[in-house]
Amino acid sequence: MKRFSLTSRLSSALAMLVMLVMATVGYALYRTLEQQLIIRDDGALITRVEQIRTLLLNEDVMTLIHDKPGLFANMLGNTESLLVLQFTDRPPLIEINPGHSPIPHINPVPADAPLTLAAVQHAVAAGGIPFISASALANVASAPYQVKITTGRLMSERTRTLAMYRNQIILVASIATVLTALLAWIFTRRGLAPLRRLAAETAMMDVRFLSRRIGITHAPPELRELIAAFNTMLERLEINFRQLSQVSADMAHDLRTPIGILLGQTEVAMRFKRDNDYYENLLGSNFEELQRLAKMIDNMLFLARAGDAGHAIQRVMLSLADEFGRLSEYFEGPAGERGLTLVCARDGATAWADPELLRRALANLLANAIRYADAGTAIVLRAVQQPEGTTISVENTGPDIAPQHLERLFDRFYRADASRTGDASASGLGLSIVRSIMMLHQGRWHAQSSKRLTRFSLFFPAKPL
Ligand SMILES: Nc1ncnc2c1ncn2[C@@H]1O[C@H](COP(=O)(O)OP(=O)(O)OP(=O)(O)O)[C@@H](O)[C@H]1O
Ligand SMILES: [Mg+2]
After folding, report:
1. pLDDT of the chain, 465 residues: tens digit per residue
2. Could you tell me the distance, in angstroms and rounded to a whole number, from the CA of residue 282 to the centre of ligand 2?
3. Ligand 1, closest atom to CA 432?
4. Which atom of ligand 1 is nearest to the CA of 296?
5. Which residues pair with 239 in a beta bridge?
């Protein structure tokens, strides 16, 4: 189906409205005029009969009728008029009928009764022209009989007047309609200019100019809300796009390093024939690199899936004593290597969380603490339960994280230490996974670091009652 423009729709709607109003007003005026003309014409006919009645009371009128019948014809003065005077059941004394209208047979009004508009008969003659007629008896001064007056008139003049009036109304209504449509079209087009400007500005938006915003100051109030919403959307897009670009750049960078190492080592190995020890060493080193790659891809996949809106988690009541015990056992080896001790403070606390995800989050925090803690210090795992939820924290002694980094630690690939190559197995995804897990739990996450004490806290909301 063809879609009409807003301009055409508005202007045709306005034009139709004007046409409807004009037609209604025109019709009402036409009807009123017609009624007024009918009353005026009927009144004139009645007056004529009254005049003839008065005339017939004159002594000399019979002589006048005999001698000068033409006088009556002149009195009517109209070729469309009809007048018949006759004594009852006698041939007419006078018959003036220049238009040859058929003589109507109507019951006459008695001589002593007054004539009213009700005495006028309405008929339609040939060609649809109205024909009015009236009949009345009249006393005659010089004769004992009564004379019957029959008169009528063909209303072609009225028909013409009305037709002219009707045509004029149609003409004026048509002109008004066309003019309205034209003006409405012009005004609407002008009025919609801001919309076209908005479309043009939007069309110019591009990934390269995501920082551009649509001007709001000169926009009409109706469009401001739309523009504001659009600008907010652009802002979100810009932030997301920048993050995404950063993530893909970092990912490419982080994938390139292990792949580069793998390629280099394999290439060197292939140049000469080597002994078994060399190959064993090479395979061992390649295995580590491949493990790092696999871990990174696994983490990326986890983050991508956790970002899905529909990702569901299975929350249960977890005893943190059990969880801490399990983690301590798992990290005993790596912690021992650096002379670190793991201390658990939990007081029989519980947390309402997905077991797999809680373990993964805590494991990431512990792995960081073990990596960054000063050798020979203690790492404290703490759980504090409150009515609204449980806070679990991992604390270690070590170099402070500068305040400007604290905010961004949970971003993907973000690392506070500038030397990215410092630890080959670190990819900068651990904390962003922690954040995703806390988001899935509608929980909170927080990092603080000062006076060589670094603490990461996770808040798991309590199970709703
Ligand atoms: N306990 C901590 N002490 C000092 N700095 C830390 C600590 N935990 C995290 N950081 C800083 O936060 C950064 C981000 O940590 P994250 O766990 O996200 O990545 P990563 O540990 O570098 O790599 P991955 O966890 O993917 O192996 C780290 O690079 C480090 O600079
Ligand atoms: Mg980490």
Report:
1. 578 888 899 999 999 999 999 999 999 999 999 999 999 999 999 999 999 899 888 888 878 888 887 777 777 766 788 999 888 778 888 888 887 888 888 899 998 899 999 999 999 988 889 999 999 999 887 777 889 999 999 998 899 999 999 999 999 999 999 999 999 999 999 988 888 888 898 888 888 888 888 888 888 888 899 999 999 999 988 888 887 787 788 778 778 878 888 999 999 999 999 899 999 999 999 998 898 888 888 888 887 777 765 677 899 999 999 999 999 999 999 999 999 999 998 888 999 999 989 999 999 999 999 999 999 999 999 999 999 999 999 999 999 999 989 988 998 878 877 554 446 567 788 898 899 899 989 999 999 999 999 999 999 999 998
2. 26
3. 18
4. 26
5. none
Q: Let me know if 223 is exposed, middle or buried by CB neighbors in 10 A (0-12, 13-18, 19+).
A: middle
Q: Dihedral of the CA atoms 84, 89, 90, 96 (nearest 10)?
A: 10
Nearest CA to ligand 1 atom 3: 372
Q: How far is the CA of 21 from the centre of ligand 1 (A)?
A: 77
Q: Are the CB atoms for 110 and 82 separated by under 8 Å?
A: no
Hey, what domains does the chain have and what are their CATH numbers?
A: 6-166 (3.30.450), 221-306 (1.10.287), 316-461 (3.30.565.10)
Pocket of ligand 1 (CB under 6 A): 364, 368-369, 372, 396, 398, 401, 409, 414-417, 426-432, 454
The two tokens of residue 12 are 């045709």
pTM comes to: 0.55
C-alpha dihedral over 226, 228, 229, 234, to 10 degrees?
120
User: Ligand 1 center to residue 231 CA distance, Å?
Assistant: 35
Q: For tokens 């009004």, what's the residue?
A: 109
* Ligand 2 center from residue 426 Cα (angstroms): 6
In sequence order, which residues have a C-beta less than 8 Å from that of residue 349 and are 6 or more positions away?
A: 320, 321, 383, 384, 385, 390
DSSP helix/strand/coil, 185: helix
| CA proximity to 27, closest of 158, 181, 172 | 172
